[in-house]
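Late entry, flavin-adenine dinucleotide complex.
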Amino acid sequence: MKKKEYDYLIVGAGLFGCVFAHEMTKRNKKCLVIDKREHLGGNVYCEEKEGINVHKYGAHIFHTNDKKIWDYVNQFATFNNYINSPLSLSKGKLYNLPFNMNTFYQLWGTKTPKEAKAIIEEQIRQYGTKSPKNLEEQALSLIGKDIYETFIKSYTEKQWGKKATELPAFIIKRLPVRYTYNNNYFNDAYQGIPIGGYNTIINGLLEGVETKANIDFFKDRIDLESLADKVVYTGKIDEFFEYKYGQLEYRSLRFENELHETENYQGNAVINYNDASYAFTRIIEHKHFEFGSQKKTIITKEYPENWDKGKEAYYPINNERNQQIFKKYKEESQKLKNVIFGGRLAEYRYYDMHQIIASSLTKVAEISKIG
Ligand code: FAD
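Prediction complete; structure with ligand written out below:
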């Protein structure tokens, strides 16, 4: 049989596809990466405006506990020492996140872990239930009334477009609290933002790899498939199978950017807006991710939205219906020997960046072992 032009056609230039392409190119495999968007990088893509790297698809903060993944990304970029310390605006007052001794002081005036713990335990005793039937009951049982009403209720209702009493309890598994004065959102050992933005990593990963933007796999599927021995597919799994078992559902987001003629708009990269009176859930001020000193600033208001086929799919909705449908697509995908499925859309799963990199590296290792 005549050898095809490429070993791998990689559909989707997000982190999964780019890591796969990089690793296979290193192993002397010929790869072609395509993406239907006008740029490469998937959801970590940054758009430069006024000298500021704007995170086009939502704020991305790199964090991991895995030294191997940290070393891996550091091959392609130098990371700054940004520490994510978001604030939260509720009923006109600003609070530190994640829930820690600073938050408790701002909320109740408590100064010691003992005082804060006593209030939380008392509220759990008063408002909690043994077997919570919805998200509200779950949160009250884990954290008590004040924290739930100040930080969780309206924010979560905006995020999911449903009342907390109509949302399933399992959405919130844990609500970690910290009895130290520590505003670092992540517990991970390694954290930062790549200097020059995430495109630096994408460009590094794709060096020496053939790429084509503005190519939708489904517009020319037969011809594209014929180019390579194997396809790595990182798009929506239901779309790959022409929705034959039904459509998987997502929650979407709308981002509204504003340019302000001021050096500093809100003094922090991330501020959450809890109250129902704001339709958006947070404001991102991008320059603070890279300690920018530009004369202007760009902020993004993040509005959660219902999803339909014309919109970007951001968060999978993990209910019984979608899990049943996904299971059928997964079984179909396992029968295809020449297609490798990976990434957040093909696996219908939320992944952080370090997890998606790890999963792509694992896939490469598995394939390389088989030969
Ligand atoms: P994607 O980046 O989505 O790449 C898939 C690509 O496939 C896309 O570019 C798409 O255009 C392309 N594609 C799809 N269908 C086709 C087709 N038919 N033809 C051609 N191309 C196609 N992670 C963190 O670690 N820290 C964070 O702070 C963080 N913040 C986030 C904030 C938001 C709002 C969201 C939604 C996610 C966040 N993440 C964060 C997660 C991070 O974005 C993902 O882990 C990562 O982008 C997943 O990479 P991927 O390659 O699986 O998917």
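The CA atoms of residues 252 and 305 lie 5 Å apart. Will revisit in the morning.
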